[in-house]
Input
Amino acid sequence: MPDGTIVRPYGDTTGDGMVQTSFTLPVPAGPRAEGAALQLAAKMGIEPAMVVHSRAIDSGYTFFVVYGSVRHLVDLDAVRVEERSYPLLSPAEVDAAVRTRLRRKLVVLGACIGTDAHTVGIDAILNVKGFAGEKGLEYHRELEVANLGAQVGVPELVRTARARRADAVLVSQVVTQRDAHLRNTRELAAAFREAMGEARPLLVVGGPRFDPAMAADLGVDKVFGRGTTPGEVASYLVSALLPQEATA
Amino acid sequence: MSGLVLDPVLVARARELARRAAEPVVELARRHTTVSVERAVLRLAGLTGTDPVTGEGSAGDEQSVGRVPWVNRVVDAVRDQVGLGSGVALPVWHALASGAAPGLQALAEQVGAGTARFSVPAGADAERARDAARDAVAAGIARIDANRTRREELVATLGDPPRRPWIYLIVATGDIHEDIPQAQAAARAGADVIAVIRSTGQSLLDYVPEGATRTGYAGTYATGENFRLMRAALDDVGVELGRYVRLTNYASGLCMPEIAVLAGLERLDMMLNDAMYGILFRDINPRRTFVDQRFSRMVHARAGIIINTGEDNYLTTADAVDEAHTVTVSQLLNETLAKEAGLEDWQLGLGHAFEIDPDVPESFRLELAHALLARSLFPDAPLKWMPPTKHMTGDVFRGYLLDGFFNLAGALTGQGILLVGMMTEAVVTPWLSDRDLALRNVRYVLDAAGNLAEDFAPPAGGFIDRRADTVLREAVDLLGRIADHPEGLIQAIADGTFGITKRSPDGGRGLDGVVATGPDAYNPALELLEREVSRA
Output
């Protein structure tokens, strides 16, 4: 691995800049289509580019696989990511923290809102079965979890959160057509703000197409993106909801 | 396809338990009707269109999608005035026979204007209303029959796909006018069956939207007009290709009976129609589901439609090894309920899926065992083989390999309908190139190994044979627990027997649309369809 903060993509030699990409152009297959693909690759910064594969799809489209060296440089010093601001805890540590610091069960509600019927996300976080080898939140003795399932209306979610005195509401959104996930999340945040003001539960949304940096913009406390595990969510809940441990 | 040799005593016991578990559900369906069943009767009698004035129940979509269909307005009016215990046919055709309106459409407009008055006839009046209703509904059933004949003619002249499994591909743009060229392109690229996924919210709408629609979310609304447009487009491309291209949609959710009728009227060929999916995964009321489902399956039986059941869903929410037997249980329940409604073996596209975690050792052998168990338990059913979704992680390269193994398992175990897996599952709705790559994957496997089933006979007592036997035994245990519940399946679902969730008989959506039928209840569609079932 090279040292220094400027890097290029790595094919098989440091600094070769090699990338591969694939795309379809609405152009019938032929030399003109390949020329068009090379032009696009050049504009993407891939130069020289090789069209290693092209294939007609239907009559008016061509699919390409392109390899080449990209001229762009990556400046690692300029990379900004949201680093996890809370410690990752094991299930036992999560339960111990709730027991000693909250001294009652932590109430978590989960749902898919809007027309989204894809419960895989919320189920992966909540169901005992869990995800990526980690058990879901239902597995925790100190968490009281209710999974309301799919297509829950926002007013119903607010009512249930109030009735159950939820500490946190977790919402997953998979369908993103026409930015439905963003619109639904804003509606969720507004409804809780209006109904409960400062007393609202912690609002957490997640889904494969969310940008974790968008929490403030969407009016929620936390946004989880692709690949989030139950352990990360549980650890976040502990850090956000529990009074801090008295430090000596 | 030789399949596995299953313990015949165990198989017989499994079927007997499934029948017992389903019995109370069938009884329940016989003693009730629903608003959607009654609306389906009016649809069979030819009532179409929407009330131009009312617009509540909007799906937040273009105006036509949110308009209330006349069938809803009429059923609601009858219900408000005289209740639905006698069904909608008696009061409606009594009003028509009494000269209240020249026809059903005109009567609906009177309902719209608030001037229609309904009463439940008795004696000779009831006889007259029954005869008129039977004639009107028979016209719709005749159209369904004509479509079935037309399908048989087209298959005879154009031909069936050259081999099994049939290749099943999904389109889902939300816009019927985008779906059509995509579906035609897919057929040209090798798809034998086109499924148009519905807009996500549709299963919870208590009405069927009307007209050609362009604004669905993650799918396109199922409407009579969308069905008609797509059917015509696939017939065109079928002529061009010299093979009949089948069309699939979803008879599920709150309007299952009406969508089944629309499918029969517009010559759809397959419908997704599961006994429990709506209950477990959509929180639709169990009673509503079972009543609607029986009627919709009777319509499918008559229409020569192949149903596809949704067992793949159990595996996407639970562990595909631990819960493999729940698939078998659901298949057996779906089978018994389907047969009671008049469906034949060739119409049972019982579902199952390739969802075992690829990191589990021997995962492919386990998949083969499960797939062969289904094949051997239901030798005459087409079986619908569903691709991996749960373990498609966004690593499209690994996903492409996994789909290849899925295709191989399908070929090796003689599956009837193969839903084409996309390597971009969980990343994007499929692109043009994704579909093309996926079809090439299927074609390669079928060309290279399509007849390998002939050489594939897992030895008795081997890993696959033993695993299949274990799953079947677990299924029989679970079926026994369900059958022992006093109210069979419904109570078992309430107790969370299916592991996924508990659903009370009085909970969920759509219960207010379920009505106990009285002694004078008359449903001309049921009468005509049941005649057919008892003849079979």
In short: Residues 32-138 of chain B form one domain. Chain B touches chain A through 29 residues (CB under 8 Å). Residues 33 and 515 of chain B are 5 Å apart (CA to CA). The first strand of chain B starts at residue 32 and ends at 34.
